[in-house]
Amino acid sequence: MFKKWLGYIAVSFAVLIGFSIVNTEQQVSATTEPHYTIATDTTFPPFEFQGKNGKYVGIDMDLLAAIAKKEHFTYKLTPMSFNSATQSVLSGQIDGVIAGMTITDEREAVFDFSKSYYKTGIIMAVNKASKIKKLTDLKGKTVALKTGTGSAEYARGIQKKYGFKVTYFNDSNTMYNDVKVGNSDATFEDMPVMQYAIKNGVALKIVTKPTLAGYYGFAVKKGQNKALLQAFNSGLAKIKADGTYQKIVNKYLDASASKFSGSKADNTTFWGLIKSNKTQFINGLVKTIQLTIISILLASIWGIILGLLGVSPYKWLQGLSTTIIYIFRGLPLMVLAFFIYIGLPNLTGDKIPAFVAGIVTLVLNEGAYIGAFVRGGIEAVDKGQMEAARSLGLPYGRAMSKVIMPQGVKIMIPSFINQFIITLKDTSILSAIGIIELTQTGTVIISRNMQGFKVWLIVAIIYLVVITLLTWLSNWVKTKMK
Fold first, then answer.
1. Architecture of domain 2-9+277-481 in CATH?
2. Each residue's pLDDT tens digit, 201-235
């Protein structure tokens, strides 16, 4: 029996490894040019956002492309939340980050920055109907901030002085909407970013003058990737000298978002949103299904092993199973994802592709839950069944596989169905480490058209349709197993 299980495990991990090779984020350039992996924020227009056909555009994106062309290097772009992007660079997973990142003394302690490529300032914005006009009006109010940004650091620095509370968000659009609907009273943001957002439909108003002038820079981990940093500085000087830099800046600051994401009508109707973003929705759904299917298959194998260990006649194996289940059921999924994708590379020095890290995260977490109900299903079978099988001369392993497991599986089927659906929904958490699945796809689309209600309704409908189909399929399998 155990040889058979080992064979299943070997085949499954071979499939995982093969799939990870296809999806690896460490692709090697086909040329002799240097190749890098560079992270960026997913929602920070006009510096980075998703345009037509899912392509990332913006001031930062065009500057990076122009500099790479001048300096003859290639790169793979990895969009993720700003906080995740910076942590990924520090863990060695990513070579550099360009995401409207303000150069500060604190950041210079752990990052090496390029020469500044943009000067900015921080402003306060409020709901259009708000009576807040100055910082002193914030006493007792709630301020929305974007995690890890220079504007968030500025707000924290004046929080005690002006007596306001803070709440944090991972993306700009959600932060803006929190102020728009009145959950938060104000927000702090870089001036050009807020100006662009308001110009393109965000119902906020700027009420303070720019303060704490800051400078954006491209960043690498301190002491690492010196060649990349030198190339960025050299290329930046060249595109400033030949006028390319100013053309790029003017291209975005002087234009509306519809220029990069389709017609205005496409951004305001349900059918228009689906039609203009169908490729992104399909890609996000495919990624979600890939994560779900691979994870549930491997988690099922891992969970069955944990469940079998949990009913083993050996106490130490029971203890091992209980400990593993306790740990991975107790850890929040996002914490586990960050630990695997960012924490482990810090310890080992080896990079882990985001897709593989996501699979491992789901397998460990979902496998622990499966292990618990597999153990419960086996224990639910009358103990006399095992005693009868052993009295007939069947060894423990054969009695378990031929007598106990077939009966236990029927008890476990509803739990397997529920876990399949839970795994599908849990994939949304993996957007935190840069995987563009269905939920993150919605976030990225909203960042350019600001149609939050309609886009989230479309995403919700897609999830409901897929979950309904899975439920029907699962129920059909359940009836066939009876």
1. Orthogonal Bundle (1.10)
2. 788 999 999 988 789 999 999 999 999 999 999 99
Mean of pLDDT values over 241-252:
93
The per-residue pLDDT for range 399-414, each reduced to its tens digit, is 776 667 777 677 777 7
- Higher per-residue confidence, 482 vs 382: 382
What residue spans in the chain does CATH classification 1.10.3720.10 cover? 2-9+277-481
Model confidence pLDDT, tens digit, residues 105-123: 889 999 999 999 999 899 9
How far apart are alpha carbons 129 and 204 in whole angstroms?
9
Q: Which fold has domain 33-117+217-261?
A: D-Maltodextrin-Binding Protein; domain 2 (3.40.190)
End-to-end CA distance of the chain: 24
Q: What is the CATH number of domain 122-212?
A: 3.40.190.10
What residues does CATH 3.40.190.10 cover in the chain? 33-117+217-261, 122-212
HSE, CB side, 13 Å, CA atoms: give it for residue 393.
0
Phi (first) and psi of residue 159, to 5 degrees: -60, -45
pTM of whole model > 0.85? Answer: no
